[in-house]
Each structure stands twice: as C-alpha cells, then as structure tokens.
Design goal:
mainly alpha, 4 helices
Length: about 110
C-alpha cells in the first residue's frame, strides 16, 4: 500500500498551520513547503522499506533528519520558540502516523 504524497502533505500542513497561524500567519508558504518535504521523505522511506532498500533504523534516522531540518526552518522563519515548532511538527505527524505506519508495515513514526 503506497502513500498518497499530496494527501499526507496537505493533512500535515493543515495540522501544523493550525498550531502556527496565530503566532506566525505569514508563514503559510514556508510551512506548506516544509511539510511537503516531510511528506516526500515519508513516501520515500515507505517505498524504500517496502523494497528492502532501507532498514528500520535507517528509515527512522532519515525521518529524524527531516524533522530536524523542518524544525530549523520553522525556528528561523519567524523566531518561533522551540516548543511551538516541536508542537507543530508533532501535530502534523500525529495526523498521518497511522497511515504511514500501516503503509510501511512497521512503526516508523
């Protein structure tokens, strides 16, 4: 079962921007672009796991690296606090967690 890139990117953006919009309403474009990157990473990791090209540990590392990059962009963009950036990322991942883990066949989120 493959992941729908556009759907998970949209779902994550909506969840993350819901957390950020009061504090940083002008960040819409940046938030949307960053969560598209997260979605692309999740789709890539899922397909590489399915093909046996990545181990579970490698998959988790790639996801952590993308989360770190997204966190850095959010922190830099509007001077958001680390807590708020983390909340946005975690909220976004929460909305796709079940679909991603099911598609991957293992818990990667």
């Amino acid at each position: 079962m493959g992941l729908d890139l556009d759907k998970i990117a949209k779902d994550m953006f909506v969840a993350a921007f819901g957390v950020l919009k009061e504090r940083a309403p002008k960040m819409r474009t940046i938030v949307e672009a960053e969560f598209k990157k997260v979605a692309q990473t999740l789709v890539l990791v899922e397909s590489e796991l399915a093909a046996g090209e990545l181990s579970h540990e490698e998959a988790a590392l790639l996801i952590d690296m993308q989360k770190s990059a997204t966190r850095s962009v959010l922190l830099m963009s509007q001077g958001l606090s680390l807590l708020l950036a983390e909340r946005a990322i975690n909220t976004a991942l929460d909305v796709v967690r079940a679909a991603v883990n099911t598609a991957a066949g293992v818990k990667i989120l």
